[in-house]
Design a protein that fits this description.
326 residues; mainly alpha; 16 helices; 67% helix; 0% strand; binds ligand LUO; binds zinc ion
Length: 326
């Protein structure tokens, strides 16, 4: 029963609250224990009357519903949840948001890519898959991830929300649906622009402000690999490109449109990453850091370092191309 959370040393518990946590050092079974520690250390079990065994069933069921694909697997789920956990402690969000908002953010991070097939929304829509049909081309993957999450919560032995009031349950369900659907990168600018307007006058008692912040926190956690040490981050980009190349190979075989940044014949790893960091990551992380200045050293600095690393790599490969071609 509770022996597993005792196995985790105080040092690991503290390390778990930092963005430099290295997922590659841990087995998936150990990650399940670490996820349990996150829920217990945020006092969710006492606050929401969650039985430890129900939490363990829930976490195991979530683990079973992630697929063995190169990037959107259980390790990604763990990384996103661990980053969210670290951000909650670093920004001192426990004293700025209610515990129910924290539960929504952590559980949304945990469930945000459930049963991901390794083929993105563009593929789902172009190939007219069952998911695209079921969700009318509207964020088919994110709708599916969320539906699978509540399918798991519908099982009594996994329902960590079973001892909450109906009103609390509705609040959590509404919050999770908004946060998980917000991870569709097609909506990136829509959500970031809303946050940019609110940030200078942010009000932690304003419902709309809190809602956008929660979406931003899940989005930041979701694409935050480059905020980790290079030794941790770089393998993730290889995994991501492997998944993207699988998709573009399939698209070519099926005569479907091929997304340029997924085409193994077109993608240059360094330049695609410098663009991603410059135009997607830095604007997003900069905006969040304006609200929580302490994040500058923890996530903004490492991302600037990553931009430096990939820019140098880009320059080196360009120079090498010039010298090789006479
Ligand atoms: C606006 O929608 C976008 C924008 C950018 C991208 N992806 C990229 O630019 C490339 C492939 N790089 C990239 N993409 C990444 C990273 C982390 N998550 N992530 C990702 C994965 C799946 C779907 C979307 C994204 C951004 C990362 O470190 N790099 C994908 C979708
Ligand atoms: Zn994700």
């Amino acid at each position: 029963c509770c022996y597993s959370s005792l196995q985790v040393t105080e040092e690991v518990r503290e390390h778990l609250k930092t963005p430099i946590f290295d997922n590659w050092q841990w087995e998936e079974a150990e990650m399940l224990v670490l996820l349990q520690v996150m829920y217990t250390d945020l006092d969710f079990l006492t606050a929401f009357n969650i039985e430890l065994e129900v939490l363990q069933n829930f976490l195991f069921e979530v683990y079973c519903h992630y697929n063995n694909i190169p990037f959107h697997n259980f390790q990604h789920c763990f990384c996103v949840t661990q980053m969210m956990y670290g951000l909650i402690w670093l920004t001192d969000l426990r004293n700025k948001l209610g515990r129910i908002e924290l539960l929504i953010m952590l559980t949304s991070a945990l469930c945000h890519d459930l049963d991901h097939p390794g083929y993105n929304n563009v593929y789902q829509i172009n190939a007219q898959t069952d998911l695209a049909l079921r969700y009318n081309d509207i964020s088919p993957l994110e709708n599916h991830h969320c539906a699978v999450a509540f399918g798991i919560l519908a099982k009594p032995e996994c329902n960590i929300l079973k001892n909450l009031t109906t009103e609390q349950y509705k609040h959590i369900r509404g919050g999770m649906i908004k946060c998980i659907l917000a991870t569709d990168m097609a909506r990136h600018n829509e959500i970031l622009n809303k946050f940019k307007v609110m940030q200078p006058v942010f009000d932690f008692t304003n419902k709309d402000h809190k809602e956008v912040l929660m979406k931003i926190m899940v989005k930041v956690s979701d694409i935050s690999n480059e905020a980790r040490p290079m030794a941790v981050a770089e393998p993730w980009l290889d995994c991501l490109l492997q998944e993207f190349f699988n998709q573009s190979d399939t698209e070519k075989l099926k005569g479907l449109p091929v997304t340029p940044f997924m085409d193994r014949d077109k993608v240059s790893k360094p330049s695609s990453q410098t663009n991603f960091i410059r135009f997607v990551l830095l604007p997003l992380f900069t905006e969040l850091t304006k609200l929580f200045p302490c994040l500058e050293q923890h996530i903004l600095e490492p991302v600037r370092g990553a931009l430096e690393y990939y820019s140098n790599l880009e320059r080196a490969t360009k120079e090498e191309e010039v010298t090789v071609k006479p």
